[in-house]
């Protein structure tokens, strides 16, 4: 967490095992109630485990995260997915894959099942001959049928899946990414042991209404320390100016939407973003 938040928390001089006081303090620091409860519980666990009640909790065991390896984890993906383009249709997927974007996601919104199936198959075909890894947003059955690399699910979509549905995705060998917007959702995502976890929205975004305020890079860094065993994708309002601070948080991938689709020259924008990311992460 940023120095000023840590200082404010330390100045409160809270008893390390007093849940109610820690919960209230987290609300004062701007966390929503479910996240405040999650942090307060972790604070108590940290104090009981180590006797340390002064550091911001970031040990996986204090949040109840199971150790790795795990028997029913989804297949692994690269820890550093690099530039991750979220795109509206198969034509954009192919265009950005040919431009050298290493990870692409088809976010195709339609209630027409036949149209979804066609677009997913077209996206799979569009990345053929490129090294791009293709994730399909939401449409997991179509992704399985078309042979996509992976699926990305939001929290609401994850809640709708049964254990059998998750087993079907895992058995098919597809990677799974899950969106999160704070501590409580990170713990929910961890329960299914996905291939990666997405963290956002880092900055304000106009693309969708968020249940939480923008997380900022300080919280992002705290999340990265907690989820150190996962590949992590930062998303939400990220552009070239904000990119270095995002990468400094410890994430291995940065997802963008409008930074590419609204760019005057998307190929040039992709090359610029990719260059910054690869330079920071030491990728080839």
UniProtKB/TrEMBL annotation:
Its EC number is 2.5.1.3. It is an enzyme of class 2 (transferase). It comes from the Bacteria. Keywords: Thiamine biosynthesis, Transferase. One of its GO terms (molecular function) is thiamine-phosphate diphosphorylase activity. The keyword Secreted does not apply. Residues 90-260 form the Thiamine phosphate synthase/TenI domain. This is Thiamine-phosphate pyrophosphorylase.
């Amino acid at each position: 967490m940023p120095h000023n938040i840590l200082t404010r928390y330390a100045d409160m001089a809270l008893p390390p095992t007093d849940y109610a006081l820690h919960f209230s303090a987290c609300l004062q620091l701007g966390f929503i109630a479910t996240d405040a409860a999650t942090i307060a519980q972790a604070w108590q666990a940290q104090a009981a485990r180590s006797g340390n009640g002064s550091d911001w909790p970031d040990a996986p065991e204090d949040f109840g995260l199971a150790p790795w390896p795990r028997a029913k984890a989804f297949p692994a993906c690269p820890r550093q997915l690099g530039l991750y383009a979220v795109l509206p249709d198969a034509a954009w997927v192919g265009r950005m894959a040919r431009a050298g974007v290493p990870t692409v996601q088809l976010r195709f919104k339609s209630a027409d099942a036949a149209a979804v199936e066609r677009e997913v198959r077209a996206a799979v075909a569009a990345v053929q001959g490129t090294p791009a890894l293709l994730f399909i947003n939401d449409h997991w059955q179509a992704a399985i049928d078309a042979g996509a690399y992976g699926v990305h699910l939001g929290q609401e979509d994850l809640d709708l899946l049964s254990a059998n549905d998750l087993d079907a995705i895992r058995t098919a060998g597809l990677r799974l990414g899950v969106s999160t917007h704070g501590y409580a959702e990170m713990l929910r995502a961890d329960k299914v042991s996905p291939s990666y976890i997405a963290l956002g929205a880092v900055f304000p975004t106009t693309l969708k209404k968020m249940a939480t305020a923008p997380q900022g890079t300080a919280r992002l860094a705290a999340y990265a320390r907690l989820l150190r065993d996962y590949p992590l994708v930062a998303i939400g309002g990220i552009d070239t100016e904000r990119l270095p601070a995002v990468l400094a948080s410890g994430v291995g991938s940065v997802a963008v939407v409008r930074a590419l689709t609204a760019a005057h020259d998307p190929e040039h924008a992709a090359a610029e973003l990719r260059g910054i990311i690869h330079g920071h992460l030491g990728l080839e």
